[in-house]
Amino acid sequence: MDRRVSRYIHRGKFYVEGWLRTEATLVIAALGEHQQTLGVKGGIAEIGVHHGKLFILLYLLGREHEKAVAIDLFGDQDQNVDQSGGGNLERFRSNLQRHADTRRLVVHQGNSLDLSAADLVRLAEGPLRLVSVDGGHTPQHAVHDLATAEGALAEGGIIIVDDVFNERWPGVSDGIHRFFAERPNLVPFALGANKTYLCRPSQRDSYRDAAAAVASSVTMSEFLGEQVAILQFQRRSVQDRIGHTAIWRRLRATPIGRPLRWAWRTGGRLRQGLTRREDF
Ligand SMILES: C[S@@+](CC[C@H](N)C(=O)[O-])C[C@H]1O[C@@H](n2cnc3c(N)ncnc32)[C@H](O)[C@@H]1O
Q1: Does 163 contact ligand 1 (Cβ within 6 A)?
Q2: DSSP secondary structure string, 21-84?
Q3: Average pLDDT per run of 10 along the chain, which is 280 residues long?
């Protein structure tokens, strides 16, 4: 994985406010890199940017000359009818500058309901290869924004939809069903960590395999009449996560690290003993 992408996933993103699980970032990074291997070209875009938590990752996955279009109401929050997030252009820009740069950035402040696929292609100066749909969460917004993303998609493009299975936002689920009733030339290929992934039917197997390679385990299920990969992830323990950091690897054999290791091991034995007694 590219170093800047990895640094953002494992460190930077924790400093940006928003909604994005680490497991989802790993899948998105794998898909973005897989597109590069396949030679898929095009810009990236997100409808519903908030402070840029996901957008920054998409931006880092983009290449030189690929535009990155950020669409949000930003200062026009009076039009945010369901209060899904609250975009802030200043914070978004400074987050992007801090974790990447703004050279390829194209900002579109406005209501996504007024944006067509042709507008999006014009803003990106061509069709797009990665589009995240995470703006308004009503059925009307979901249907409209999915159609915009679909119409602007490059050959080999992927649409990432947030909250399809989030009970807080049933409108998104309703919207995706309505959108698929129109039989778009798209299929869902995977879902997991609150993201649902769509692509053209011809790329389904290739993208499904790339997404599945990052998951701890995968089961297949039917969704919208198609077989999709359900991506499951095993949460790493705190000990495991700390143990893999560079700072701990430097510390572990020092006079500070040795007593910490002893305390952790003793604590572990105690915890195991307690569990056994409780089980008994
Ligand atoms: C859930 S947040 C997005 C979270 C973001 N993707 C992240 O990575 O944290 C939804 C965003 O959509 C924006 N939004 C809501 N309704 C919109 C609309 N009709 N058009 C454009 N943006 C909208 C809000 O301002 C908010 O920033």
Answers
A1: no
A2: -HHHHHHHHHHHHHHHHHT---EEEEE--TTSHHHHHHHHHS-TT--EEEEE-TT-GGG-TT--
A3: 94 95 96 96 97 98 95 94 91 97 97 98 98 97 98 97 96 97 95 97 97 96 96 74 67 81 67 40
Distance 249 CA to ligand 1 centre (A): 40
pLDDT value, residue 276:
38
* CA–CA separation, 208 and 232 (whole Å): 13
Q: How far is the CA of 168 from the centre of ligand 1 (A)?
A: 15
- CA of 130 from ligand 1 middle (Å) equals 17
Q: What pLDDT, on a 0 to 100 scale, did the predictor assign at position 277?
A: 36
The full set of domain ranges for the chain reads 3-232, 238-279
Between the CA of 261 and the centroid of ligand 1 the distance, in Å, is 44
Q: What's the maximum distance between 2 C-alpha atoms anywhere in the chain?
A: 67
**Across-strand partners of 223?**
226
Mutate to test the pocket of ligand 1, among 14, 17, 77, 84 (most ligand atoms within 8 A of CB): 84
What is the topology classification, in CATH, of domain 3-232?
Rossmann fold (3.40.50)
